[in-house]
Specification:
Distance between the termini: 29 Å
CATH topology: Cathepsin B, Chain A
Largest sheet: 2 strands, antiparallel
CATH superfamily: Cysteine proteinases
Low-confidence stretches: none
Oligomer: single chain
CATH architecture: Alpha-Beta Complex
Strand content: 5-15%
CATH class: Alpha Beta
Helix content: 25-40%
Order of helices and strands: HEHHEHHHHEHEEEEE
Strand order of the largest sheet: 1-5
Number of helices: 8
Structural class: alpha+beta
Length: 246
């Protein structure tokens, strides 16, 4: 089914190229089922919006946080969503971990536990980032040293929300938790860029169409294919590729 779509995209000579990854119809429907619905989109739009009105920082043509904060080693880690399945919380947890390091002046190198969120946050589902962030504020998230990644423990299990699963880790579960402040939204390109330069990676939600699942290289822009839903990813920075800003 995606063969026709790939040929169509590549015939347009647009800013990106497509490739058929032989995704089955069942997988397409599964992807759509875990995307944001309209109610969740509306909640994101209603989040408190802040502006960096007092910033005098010049905005460069490109910005890469991995170069700006080299000691924050987890900035280099791009995790596959299968590690977060069935609820893809990887982008949100990754950004939280990055910001702990950046805001501490690259001193606190902490990797928050995906498993802790999947086991203990009953509302952290369907790629909806606000619930992950509210959980970070209200309940806190332990580190991966306390709860390492485990493929077999990706489901809600309150009995696991008491102790570390790593028996050799010396810090108690409750004392290992890290907390965030209230979630907020950033609107406008300049504001988003200032946020990324000063505080580190952020989370964004965007509309997914079928052609996104065929992306191979270049700067993606929707060209064709049906709507699949909304999805969330982590934004690191920006730049220009072949005179196309991204």
């Amino acid at each position: 089914m995606l063969d026709k779509l790939v040929r169509e995209v590549n015939s347009l000579n647009t800013t990106w190229t497509a490739q058929n990854y032989n995704i089955s119809q069942a997988t397409l429907e599964s992807i759509a089922s875990f995307n944001l619905n309209q109610v969740q989109w509306n909640e994101i739009k209603q989040a408190q919006n802040i502006k960096h009105t007092n910033s005098k920082m010049p905005i460069p043509v490109e910005f890469d946080p991995r170069k700006e904060w080299p000691k924050c080693i987890y900035l280099n880690e791009i995790r596959g969503e299968k590690e977060c399945w069935p609820y893809p919380v990887c982008p949100t947890i990754g950004a939280m971990s990055d910001r702990i390091c950046i805001i501490s002046g690259q001193i606190l190198i902490k990797k928050l536990s995906i498993i802790d969120v999947l086991q203990c946050c009953q509302l952290c589902n369907n790629s909806f980032p606000l619930n992950d962030l509210y959980f970070f504020k209200s309940t806190g998230i332990c580190t991966e040293s306390c709860k390492p990644i485990s493929i077999v423990e990706h489901f809600i299990n309150p009995s696991k929300c008491v102790n570390c699963s790593n028996s050799t880790y010396e810090i108690p579960y409750e004392k290992d938790k890290w907390f965030g402040l209230s979630p907020y939204a950033i609107g406008g390109v300049d504001n988003i860029q200032t946020e990324l330069m000063t505080k580190g990676p952020a989370i964004t939600s965007f509309t997914i169409y079928e052609d996104f699942l065929t992306y191979k290289s270049g700067v993606y822009q929707h060209q064709t294919g049906r709507y699949l839903g909304g999805h969330s990813v982590k934004i690191l920075g920006w730049g220009v590729e072949k005179n196309v800003p991204y």
